[in-house]
Amino acid sequence: MFRLDRVMDGSPGWWSPLSAAFISLMIGVAWFVSNSAPVLAASPQDIEQTAQTTSYRIKVRIGLKVTMAMSTMTMVDQGQPVNRHLEVHIFDKQSGANVKSVVPIVTITNQATRTSRKLANVEACLTARHREIEPHYGDNLFLPDGTYTVTVGVGQETAVFRDVAVK
């Protein structure tokens, strides 16, 4: 039975353990959301380019690294801590619908050194809210400042993004 007089006089009532549990739960939820929800909008320093193939419109975005709790994203790349996040957005050219059924193959070429590498861990972003709002594939990587060519293969088609300047 709830007794208001016990609560009002400052003595610990039945509600104290529940209040502590509730506050702990809310702190945990706030921590999880702040550490797992990536920024959904492009930031001003993001680099974004769009190209078309016969069947697809493909957008590549390179921005600052993304950190999410319980993520499988790369944290160390080429022996360096990651500093960038690469996203690939794939759209059906005719309907404009997001294509979620194919995983792109991404190759990055440094134009100054002419060295190329295939990104091994490009995967669908599986954070539920983020995936619904802006479906894409991506991963973190180490990418020093420079100018790059990014090649994205989708099935039998390839889009090339030239002169991608990363600063």
What secondary-structure arrangement, pairings included, does this model have?
Elements lengths: L3 H5 L6 H22 L10 E6 L3 E9 L11 E2 L2 E2 L2 E9 L12 E6 L5 E3 L4 E2 L3 H6 L3 E5 L4 E9 L2 E10 L1
Antiparallel strand pairs: 1-2, 2-5, 3-4, 5-9, 6-7, 6-10, 8-9, 10-11
What does this structure look like?
- This protein has helices spanning 4-8, 15-36, 128-133, and strands at residues 47-52, 56-64, 76-77, 80-81, 84-92, 105-110, 116-118, 123-124, 137-141, 146-154, 157-166.
- By secondary structure, the protein is an alpha+beta fold.
- It folds into two domains: 4-36; 47-166, Immunoglobulin-like, CATH 2.60.40.2480.
- The chain has a five-stranded antiparallel beta sheet with strand order 1-2-5-9-8, with no helix packed on it. A four-stranded antiparallel beta sheet has the order 7-6-10-11, with no helix packed on it.
- A hairpin with a 2-residue loop joins β10 (146-154) and β11.
- It is globular.
- Residues 28-41 have low confidence and may be disordered.
